[in-house]
Please model this.
Amino acid sequence: MIDWDDVRYFLAVARGGSVRAAAKSLGVNHATVLRRIAELEERLGAQMFEKLPSGYRLTAAGDEVLEFAEQMQASSHQLETRVFGRDQSVRGLLRVTLPPPLAAHLLMPDFAEFVSLHPGIAMEVLSSGELANLTNREADVAIRVVYDREALPLNLHGVKGPELFGGFYMSGDRLAEWRAGQRDLRWIAISGHGVPGWTREGEGRTTGAPFRTTDFDAQIAAVRQGIGITALPCFVGDADPLLERVPGTDLHLYGPVWLLTQGETRKTKRTSRW
Model:
């Protein structure tokens, strides 16, 4: 009989393309992944993967197993969701996924109030760069800035919140220098994001190569240090005493905040309380 846990490890390797990626996604070590894959191959009497310099590739047998493994996972998630929806206690774990800026700079007072009102609920805030998947029960509630509601899966139920705007900011000292005529500005960006076209012309134009960071906290630290100009949500930039919004620049709309839940999960009392 196939062990569902072995199938989970198989899916993680098939989707991640390597044992290392699978171990990271499952929160286990490299050896555990190899052992569980070996156990599955022994039970099925076939090799699931071909090891290549670039990673792990499914064999013909592995391709066949993948289809059934995905069906098993979908059935497992459906069963968990239905059983979870019958849970009407105001206790247990509530997992909320949201972008780091919303968690650290906007909604933490709301989280504090919630856990104060509901001491029986253990709350887990998932605020890494990757948003958890509600359909796969990786989280119970998602808070996201959604540009187009129609782009969301139909099985998600949403409550629309306020619209969020962004602006352009410098440190107070750097802005004073800029006003005094020192216009040698760098654009500070999160890696993977481009440089706005307007920064290449006019009084607010930037010079030199962009300064890139890999996370939001480093971006804020860079602009505080006077490295240059950057775009930030207004709820971050306006609240920071070391930063000032650049005069003559327009606000831009990020989009409305949506509170999202999925299927049966939204029927539980601890989710509906949120």
Observations:
- The radius of gyration is 24 Å.
- Confidence is low (pLDDT under 50) at residues 83-88.
- The domain at 4-85 is CATH 1.10.10.10 (Arc Repressor Mutant, subunit A).
